[in-house]
């Protein structure tokens, strides 16, 4: 019959286990004894025998904790083998050594298993290296043939190996009470839990003096060496003895004592870890460049003294200059104005910083507006919007935009007028490139806190387009109370005084303006009589904040300005070639319609008003050639550039030009203005468009007479777009033309062909007819996609070499070797054979005798490579592949779960029965 103390201890163990259970990967052990345990060793248990004895399905790679007796006197943990009964050791060293000795009457244990427990949360990068050394033998009723083995276990264990817990008590013989993990532990504190694993030490221990020949340093004890990495709390070592033959039977029945019940006293070994201390904070990105009104997310990482990241640390974010930008509690930075600021993430006295440079906002890519209202609009003013408030109400944060709300009618109150005496306005179309108009208000509310001007230009906007806008009017602090009129307003002249250019048009091309109406992809007309459905009649749009509000004449006192409370707008266009339309928009902070823009001028029907300007189309008045005069050597050339001049004396895009030379015997000019000098004399080159033309006078001088082979022929061109081709012509030597195709946009390109009597490298194999150098200038090899050479060889030379017309190839020297280029025989004339060859670039070339080197059609991919020059050798790389055998990591078995509540009830039932 079980003793009352045993049953009480078992019941308490179960109740404490139940309280300590938390959802985790690891699971608590259900009882202090009569349980199977798994070990964390990759190789599993040393003696896989207990499952067959105590289980139901044979050996199962576990040990059985039987522990029916006392079991606290014979197994001890000691830091000194000279004291085999051990002691309580608490160390702050993260690596060390201790011993597991036998001091009982039996005098040995066939195997020792160690429990490693860690208090609290185990870090993800935790590791412990365990080495064990000791005696090993074949288990019997008494060891007789034992051998000492060094490092019988030498393994690293990690967080994933801790499969038991969290719990506050460890397995043990329960007769004298349940054992804790560390000496002095408060076992009633169910929040102070441990997770643990079992490590098979693969060695037994022998009682010193009872067995001969124990010459090891442990005197028969098992030596354990440990090294922790990233232990932050407390780790405890406890040990268990396993025997095959013992009075208590097979299995584990012994452990070290931590509750002062053993004859020799309590003994155990624990290690105090190194708690993480915040020492630095890293802010990422370290530097950032962001455009005004954009944002960037910063992240902070807390680092402890070993450089490891600390989790769940909060940061206080700040910006050193909040006029440049602000940062919220989550580290999101908002750029407000150009400049530099330092972002700080702090926790107590520890902080990290990052630097942010805010640049002027980039010009948005031009695109049509998505819909007619419920959208944000950007203004073209360098200073941005006057009232940066709408983003916070309708968006996420202030974003330097206005919100086009326009939920009501909004077409009756706002007008554009050329005469302030007529505040209801009119439709005005002017041919004047500068002028004045007014934006007025006649609505019931009688005011708008701010006015925004829309400028729309029809068709293509010239690159040199500009419009100067000057606005004058009243300004005040908007009242946040709905419909409350301003009382302290001031008239300011030149509130806006700014020039806007083509780059400021960020909306369009489109046919409509935003405003009231059903939400959709099309809005209101831009001017009277416009068909918004005419997709071919598009406009580019920009918005300009006039920085002034409107006041209704007669409603407000003291309106002595010439606009009578309206906003005065003065405009001046440069290079407006088509048609421009102005429209106005009203913004209010607190109106019946809500905050935002809800009003614009009506351009059609009753009450229509608007202001349009008809531009002056530019037309060609003269052409200037550059150079206007030059001296050119025969067999060379010069590139001429034509500048088209409009009626204002400004250069305009050049129209299609017809090029001609007055004396083509002296030189010719191609359709791109490249002049090729042929013979001595003077000629006039003309570029014409209709009746307008420009000329250049070119003088051609002869080449010096220095022999047939003393020539160097340059040929040049310019203005090539990616993929374009241009033919360069040569009037002496074997090369007649080079058709160059460029891989990218190339402004200038020149190729000079010159003879080479002695190559600076070893020549190709075979007889060489002519060696040449093709020199590329004003561009680099990356600009060239391909070059097609046309060349000729005298038939007499072919006859001398006993060659056919197909026994010729053009070879190129590149990367230390000669390569035969794809060469095609084109035709035979009276004295010459003509060929075409394709090259990927320029270098040294050789027209060479090669059997079958030329064909009627050569695949560019089938070029033949000859042996490289001796100075350059290319060793082929050999990669030898091997296939590693697949390995499967051992998987620890999970303990068989027991239902704690049922076991607890059963224990209480036994108590009651006893």
From TrEMBL:
Signal peptide span: none
Any single Pfam family the record assigns to this protein: Big_2
Domain of life: Archaea
All copies of domain BIG2, residue ranges: 277-357, 619-699
Cited InterPro entries: Big_2 (IPR003343), Invasin/intimin_cell_adhesion (IPR008964), PGF_pre_PGF (IPR026453)
NCBIfam families in the record: PGF_pre_PGF
Name the record gives this protein: PGF-pre-PGF domain-containing protein
Organism: Methanofollis formosanus
Species lineage: Archaea, Methanobacteriati, Methanobacteriota, Stenosarchaea group, Methanomicrobia
């Amino acid at each position: 019959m079980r003793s009352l103390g045993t049953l009480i201890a078992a019941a308490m163990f179960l109740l404490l286990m139940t309280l300590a259970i938390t959802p985790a990967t690891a699971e608590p052990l259900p009882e202090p004894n009569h349980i199977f345990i798994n070990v964390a060793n990759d190789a599993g248990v040393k003696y896989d025998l207990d499952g067959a004895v105590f289980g139901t399905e044979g050996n199962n790679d576990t040990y059985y904790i039987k522990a029916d007796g006392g079991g606290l006197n014979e197994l001890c943990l000691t830091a000194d083998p000279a004291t085999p009964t051990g002691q309580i050791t608490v160390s702050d060293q993260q690596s060390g050594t201790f011993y597991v000795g036998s001091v009982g009457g039996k005098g040995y244990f066939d195997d020792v298993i160690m429990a490693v427990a860690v208090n609290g949360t185990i870090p993800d990068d935790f590791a412990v290296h365990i080495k064990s050394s000791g005696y090993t033998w074949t288990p019997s009723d008494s060891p007789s043939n034992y051998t000492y083995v060094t490092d019988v276990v030498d393994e690293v264990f990690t967080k994933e190996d801790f499969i038991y817990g969290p719990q506050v008590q460890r397995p043990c013989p329960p007769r004298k009470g349940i054992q804790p993990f560390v000496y002095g532990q408060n076992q009633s504190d169910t929040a102070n839990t441990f997770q643990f694993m079992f490590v098979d030490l693969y060695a037994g221990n022998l009682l010193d003096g009872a067995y001969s020949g124990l010459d090891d340093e442990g005197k028969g004890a098992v030596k354990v060496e440990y090294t922790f990495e990233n232990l932050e709390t407390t780790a405890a070592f406890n040990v268990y003895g396993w025997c095959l033959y013992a009075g208590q039977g097979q299995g584990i029945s012994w452990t070290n004592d931590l509750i002062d019940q053993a004859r020799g006293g309590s003994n155990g070994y624990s290690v105090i870890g190194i708690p993480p201390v915040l020492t630095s904070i890293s802010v990422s990105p370290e530097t950032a460049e962001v455009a005004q009104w954009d944002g960037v997310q910063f992240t902070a990482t807390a680092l402890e003294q070993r450089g490891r990241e600390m989790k769940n640390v909060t940061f206080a974010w700040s910006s050193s200059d909040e006029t440049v930008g602000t940062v919220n509690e989550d580290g999101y930075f908002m750029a407000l104005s150009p400049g530099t600021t330092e972002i700080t993430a702090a926790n107590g006295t520890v902080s990290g910083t990052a630097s942010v440079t805010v640049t002027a906002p980039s010009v948005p890519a031009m695109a049509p507006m998505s819909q007619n209202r419920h959208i944000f609009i950007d203004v073209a003013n360098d200073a941005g919007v006057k009232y940066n408030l709408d983003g916070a109400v309708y968006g996420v944060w202030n974003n330097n935009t206005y919100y086009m709300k326009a939920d009501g009618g909004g077409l009756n109150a706002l007008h554009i007028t050329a005469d302030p005496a007529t505040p209801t306005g009119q439709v005005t179309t002017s041919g004047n490139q500068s002028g004045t108009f007014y934006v007025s208000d006649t609505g019931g509310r009688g005011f708008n806190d701010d006015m925004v001007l829309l400028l729309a230009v029809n068709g293509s906007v010239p690159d040199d387009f500009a419009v100067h806008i000057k606005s004058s009017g009243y300004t005040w602090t908007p009242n946040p109370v709905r419909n409350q009129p301003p009382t302290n307003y001031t008239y300011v002249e030149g509130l806006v005084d700014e020039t806007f250019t083509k780059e400021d048009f960020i909306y369009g091309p489109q046919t409509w303006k935003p405003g009231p109406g059903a939400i959709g992809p099309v809005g209101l007309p831009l001017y009277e009589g416009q068909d918004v459905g005419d997709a071919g009649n598009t406009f580019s749009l920009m918005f300009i904040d006039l920085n002034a509000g409107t006041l209704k004449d007669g409603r407000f006192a003291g309106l002595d300005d010439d606009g009578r409370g309206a906003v005065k707008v003065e405009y001046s266009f440069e290079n407006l070639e088509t048609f421009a339309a102005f429209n106005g928009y009203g913004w209010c902070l607190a109106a019946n319609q809500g905050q935002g823009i809800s009003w614009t001028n009506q351009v059609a029907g009753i009450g229509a008003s608007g202001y349009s300007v008809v531009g002056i189309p530019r037309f060609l008045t003269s052409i200037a050639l550059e150079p206007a005069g030059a001296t050119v050597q025969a067999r060379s050339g010069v590139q001429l550039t034509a500048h088209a001049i409009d009626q204002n004396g400004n250069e305009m895009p050049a129209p299609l030009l017809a090029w001609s030379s007055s004396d083509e015997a002296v030189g010719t000019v191609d359709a791109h203005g490249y002049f090729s000098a042929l013979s001595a004399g003077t000629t006039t080159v003309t570029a014409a468009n209709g009746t307008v033309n420009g000329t250049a006078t070119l003088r051609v001088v002869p080449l010096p007479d220095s022999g047939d082979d003393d020539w160097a022929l340059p040929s040049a061109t310019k203005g090539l777009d990616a993929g374009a081709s241009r033919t360069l012509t040569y009037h002496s030597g074997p090369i007649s033309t080079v058709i160059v195709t460029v891989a990218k946009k190339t402004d200038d390109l020149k190729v000079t062909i010159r003879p080479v009597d002695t190559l600076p490298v070893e020549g190709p194999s075979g007889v060489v007819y002519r060696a040449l150098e093709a020199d590329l200038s004003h561009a680099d090899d990356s600009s060239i996609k391909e070059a097609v050479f046309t060349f000729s060889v005298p038939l007499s030379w072919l006859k001398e070499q006993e060659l056919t017309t197909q026994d010729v190839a053009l070879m190129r020297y590149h990367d230390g070797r000669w390569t035969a280029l794809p060469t095609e025989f084109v035709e035979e004339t009276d004295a010459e054979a003509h060929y075409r060859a394709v090259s990927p670039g320029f270098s040294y070339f050789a027209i060479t005798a090669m059997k079958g080197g030329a064909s009627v059609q050569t695949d560019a991919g089938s070029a033949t490579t000859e042996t490289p020059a001796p100075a350059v050798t290319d060793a082929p790389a050999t990669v030898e592949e091997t296939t590693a055998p697949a390995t499967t990591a051992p998987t620890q078995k999970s303990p068989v779960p027991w239902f704690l509540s049922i076991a607890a009830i059963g224990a209480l039932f036994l108590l009651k029965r006893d």
